[in-house]
Write a structure and sequence with these properties.
alpha/beta, Rossmann fold, Helix Hairpins, Heat Shock Protein 90, 3 domains, five-stranded parallel beta sheet, 19% strand, elongated, binds adenosine-5'-triphosphate, binds magnesium ion
């Protein structure tokens, strides 16, 4: 333990010398000895002693009680008075300054030692209480702001349910009221609308649930050896089937490896969301590509499109849930996909980068460490 440092404020040289000697005998270090309240403030700030022993009547304008007020409030240091002034008025003023002890001169060595020890431990206890209160306050503020954010997010998600639900309700009502007079083609159109609105609802629900799991740390990370070439080919093929001839989706591989240790489920969410965005934010007829690049210790996935791009001012926020760029117009979306992509990347201890220009296109690059030692080919 560090020796305790004490600052003596005493204007009578003889008493001061006696005090220094006694304190040193008791095992304390006297870091300085000053004779006025003004000097005491300067030294307390500069030396930050563990305790100040303060006479009340001092040289200069400021007496010991005024100096003590300043020292305790400005530097949060404990002050013990050591004085010959025991009259009622002085005692009342001294009490109001909430000192950590009050010793009358001539002092007794044992009382001096005990008072200092009690003052130090009371000060330490007060510091701990203050610290605990500050932490509790910060925790409460964090909890409040998180709960506000959660309600806001929930509200946004619920809001996103309204459009597909309205579509389902309208088409169902039309079928009910006019179904027997409608052509087969019109009936089919309404059924298709209901199906596609239901798909949208399912996707939003799944995304909200996935993100909820990731935020409460319940999203499992179970890496296992995966043939990434097969895996990517399957994802691209199934997306190509969904978008039919409207988009051309290509898959390219740089490097000769095939297997890496990754979490299949998370990687599926990651690539699917990036590819779905690439298609959704590009004009019909355009190209989208997924590139898998094997580097020495890193695996790189790149999804490129030639679509609407992302304005620079929106780019930094897109990985936060429910954030969408200013140029989405009426392209539907909840703003959850990239938050999920980010979480999946982080669970793999990877990083995600974005390179985009408005009306030119976008490339998302995900770099994941490639755990060579755990790969069993
Ligand atoms: P969701 O994926 O939840 O259905 P979303 O596509 O709006 O909805 P994210 O995938 O999180 O949400 O994307 C957030 C925003 O980032 C999008 O709303 C869009 O503004 C922008 N964005 C993402 N990918 C692209 C892209 N390839 N091209 C242009 N903008 C994109
Ligand atoms: Mg998306």
């Amino acid at each position: 333990m560090q020796p305790i440092q004490i600052l003596i404020v005493e204007d009578e040289q003889l008493v001061a010398d006696d005090l220094r000697e006694t304190l040193e005998y008791l095992g304390y270090i006297v870091c300085d000895l000053v004779a006025s309240g003004e000097e005491a403030l300067v030294k307390a700030e500069k030396l930050q002693p563990d305790l100040v022993l303060m006479d009340i009547r001092l040289e200069g304008e400021m007496d010991g009680i005024e100096a003590s007020f300043e020292i305790q409030s400005r530097f949060n240091l404990p002050v013990v008075y050591l004085t010959a002034n025991a009259d009622r008025a002085t005692l009342d003023r001294a009490k109001a300054s909430q000192p950590f002890g009050y010793i009358l001169k001539p002092f007794d060595e044992r009382i001096l030692g005990t008072t200092i020890e009690i003052a130090l431990s009371r000060h330490q206890a007060e510091l701990e209480v203050k610290k605990a209160l500050t932490t509790a306050k910060t925790d409460q503020q964090i909890a409040e702001s998180q709960s506000q954010k959660t309600s806001q997010n929930l509200y946004t998600a619920v809001h996103e349910f309204r459009n597909p639900l309205t579509t389902i309700k309208l088409s169902a009502e039309m079928l009910k009221a006019y179904g027997d007079q409608m052509s087969e083609q019109r009936k089919q159109n309404h059924i298709n609308r209901i199906e596609s609105a239901t798909d949208t609802l399912t996707t939003i629900l799944e995304n909200v649930l996935t993100l909820g799991k990731s935020e409460s740390e319940k999203l499992d990370f179970k890496p296992k050896p995966l043939d990434l070439v097969d895996f990517c080919e399957e994802i691209v093929e199934s997306l190509q089937l969904t978008v039919k001839d409207n988009y051309q989706i290509s898959f390219l591989v740089d490097g000769n490896s095939r297997v890496a240790c990754l979490d299949e489920q998370l990687l599926w969410h990651l690539l699917n969301n990036l590819l779905a965005n690439a298609v959704k934010y590009s004009p019909i007829g355009s190209q989208v590509s997924l590139r898998l690049i094997w580097e020495e210790n890193t695996l790189c996935f790149q999804v490129t499109d030639y679509g609407i791009g992302i304005p620079a001012e929106s780019q930094s926020q897109l990985f936060e849930p429910f954030h969408r760029a200013s140029n989405v117009g009426n392209i539907p979306g909840t703003g959850l996909g990239l938050a999920i992509v980010k979480r999946c990347t982080e669970l793999h201890e990877g990083k995600i980068y974005l390179d985009s220009a408005v009306n030119k296109g976008t490339t998302f690059t995900v770099r994941l460490p490639w755990k060579v030692d755990t790969v069993k080919v």
